Amino acid sequence: MMPPVRYAVAVSVVLLFAGLAGDLRGAEPATIFNFFGIPQGVNKVRDAVVNRKGNFPGLERKPALKAITDPANLESEVPAIRVAAEVKKDIDLAPQKIKAIKYLAEVGCSCQEGVKDALLASLDDCTEAVRYEAALAFCHAAGNPCRRCERGSCCAPDVVEKLTDMAHGQDERGCCSEPSARVRQMAAAALRACNRMAPVRETPIRETPVEMPLEAPPALPSEPMPPIPAPLPMTMGPVSGVRSVALIQPIEPKPMPAVKRLEPPRQWIIPEPE
């Protein structure tokens, strides 16, 4: 049997480590010392003695750091603390969002309202993994292209427009609308799955034909028709409005003019003086 002193020391050590672990988690440490109020008394004496006159403010105890997602930080007046708590809380919900998206993909958009809107809103989530799972959900919820009357498909016009923008859209600087490459690939796959579905065709409304009264044909004139004029004879010369045929006449050869023979120039010989 363990002696009482050793047993008390072992229990004190276990409670001390449990208190340190609770202090790291931000919770009130539960130790045997706190049970007897020893740390509370020490802190009270320290606060009353260390900076009694205000000459040593740096020696006062500082408040313990809280977790970023602590409920008190969500109501903080400091914008940085409040926004950090909201962002961290939203990022920490990513696994829960992905789990919900997978379930909505199995349910489909046939009967339950709000499924399509929830998945469509997930495509704009700040977490890349959530947007990827949302595009994958639309790919699975596109329906079976072999069925003509598929009612569980989520391929609405606004969904197709959003998937097209994510897969091929660019901003004014020429950059892709979706920064993640794998999300763009999954959005393109979901878009192809939606395009394979047969478009919904509206049943044409059959209109009853209206019978219109038939009008009697106009009566033929009793007077005889004027005689048809005879065709104009073809002329040799050009006639305005009528294409005439010109006869080709043979050209008589003309005599060539006589060619004058050119004489060589005369050369004058001047005798040399003796």
Short description, anyone?
The protein contains 10 helices and no strands. With 274 residues, it is mostly helical. Helix 6 (94-107) packs across helix 7 (115-122) and helix 8 (128-140) runs parallel beside helix 10 (181-196).
Give structural notes.
This protein has 274 residues and is mainly α. Helix 9 runs antiparallel to helix 10. Among the domains are: 56 residues, no CATH class; 107 residues. The protein is elongated, with a radius of gyration of 52 Å. About 3% of the residues have low confidence. Helix content is 43%, strand content 0%.
Topology:
Blueprint: H1 4-24, H2 32-36, H3 38-49, H4 71-74, H5 79-92, H6 94-107, H7 115-122, H8 128-140, H9 157-168, H10 181-196
Tally of helical segments: 10
Low-confidence stretches: 20-26
Number of strands: 0
Backbone structural class: mainly alpha
What characterizes the major β-sheet?
none
Order of helices and strands: HHHHHHHHHH
What is the helix content? Answer: 40-55%
